[in-house]
Amino acid sequence: MPVEKSLRVCEKGHKYYKSSECPSCPTCDKENKPTSGFLSKLSSPARNALVHEGIDTLKELSKYKEKEILKIHGIGPASLPIMRTSLEEEGLSFKE
Q: Which part of the chain is the RNA polymerase alpha subunit C-terminal domain (predicted)?
């Protein structure tokens, strides 16, 4: 059964279609994508989920267990290797 997409307009006036309850605008996501740092390596849903949870630095990320991060809506298993590598490059790791 196909999910119906609804037309939405963000606060900046961008029009887009979405089938989920996720309020993020794809155009705004592209405009706001960081150019450096570990967040720049993640997909928009994963990046938005972390920022929404207040996790915007590797030091903050290192306070969480991998299982805790995976429970956040928007984070999938494909994001973990990227985060793990970024942590390791800074001498950090996920909480045990």
A: 42-80
- The answer to whether 80 touches 49, Cβ cutoff 8 Å, is no
DSSP secondary structure letter of residue 39: G
Closest CA to 47 of 22, 10, 65: 22
Q: Which of 1, 54, 44 is nearest to 22 (CA)?
A: 44
Helix residue ranges per DSSP H, the chain: 26-32, 44-52, 58-61, 66-70, 79-89
> Which tops the pLDDT comparison, 18 or 60?
60
Radius of gyration over alpha carbons of the chain, in Å? 15
